[in-house]
Design a protein that fits this description.
The chain is built from seven helices and two strands. A hairpin with a 3-residue loop joins β1 (about 195) and β2 (about 200). The chain has helices spanning about 1-10, 15-70, 75-120, 125-165, 170, 175-185, 205-230, and strands at about 195, 200. Strands 1-2 form a two-stranded antiparallel sheet. The chain is elongated, with a radius of gyration of 25 Å. It is mostly helical. This is Gustatory receptor. Keywords: Membrane, Transmembrane, Transmembrane helix. It comes from Nephila pilipes (Giant wood spider).
Length: about 230
């Protein structure tokens, strides 16, 4: 975009050389400020989201292990209480960050699409241009993967922990009826991390998003090649 704007200014007959220089300088400052601000915000949110998801996944895994290895003298109420607290935390996390997670994932996909479009169609001005495109692809892909992989890991570990808790009455026959009532009354809710309360985040959604990005990329590249052949 900067290259296109620069060429538009250079081809214009309404600006002097000094004016062109100042306009390009203002453009560079504006682009750098926007990039730094958005990068800090998106990186901070995705890093926090990924860190919390990593901790939740570890705790869910430990809870699943302790439930599967339950003993007769174990405090079953504590296991159920811990599971309900974890579910409450997951719900709070999703309530607060489902929209920011959607924005980060969408920004990552759009950034990947734009950088690849820039790589294919925009004229290159040297090795620095390729280097900036490579850094952009790494950055946007990291944002996308940070949200998708961490959230899908939490959802899968949460489902596994739920199955372990639901099987708890069968492992303690002497308290089967009491545990069955408690488990069915308290632990039946399906809570998961989502994108804007619309899409449940799992690995299939990750593959679908990357497949959609690849499909549109191929479509745009094909249309660009067809337009280029027609112009020739």
């Amino acid at each position: 975009m900067r290259v296109m704007f620069q060429r538009g200014i250079e081809n214009s007959h309404y600006y002097s050389l000094e004016t062109e220089h100042y306009m390009l300088l203002i453009l560079d400052i504006d682009v750098i400020a926007v990039l730094i601000t958005s990068s800090l915000v998106l990186t901070s949110l995705s890093g926090y989201y990924g860190f919390v998801c990593f901790q939740l996944q570890l705790i869910f895994s430990r809870l699943e292990t302790s439930t599967e290895n339950v003993k007769k003298n174990c405090n079953y109420g504590q296991i159920i209480y811990n599971y309900l607290e974890l579910i409450r935390i997951v719900k709070s996390l999703d309530d607060c960050l489902n929209y920011p997670a959607f924005v980060i994932v969408l920004s990552g996909l759009l950034g990947l699409f734009y950088t690849n479009y820039d790589l294919v169609f925009v004229p290159k001005s040297g090795c620095l241009h390729y280097f900036s495109i490579t850094l952009g692809e790494i950055y946007f892909f990291t944002l996308f993967v940070m949200i998708m992989l961490s959230a899908s890991a939490v959802n899968s570990s949460s489902a596994a922990a739920k199955e372990a808790v639901m099987s708890l009455p069968g492992k303690v026959p002497e308290h089967y009826n009491e545990l069955k009532v408690v488990v069915r009354g308290e632990c039946m809710r399906d809570v998961s991390l989502t994108l804007w309360k619309t899409y449940k985040i799992d690995r299939s959604l990750l593959i679908s998003a990357l497949g959609t990005l690849l499909t549109y990329g191929i479509l745009v590249a094909t249309l660009g090649a067809m337009n280029g052949s027609r112009s020739n």
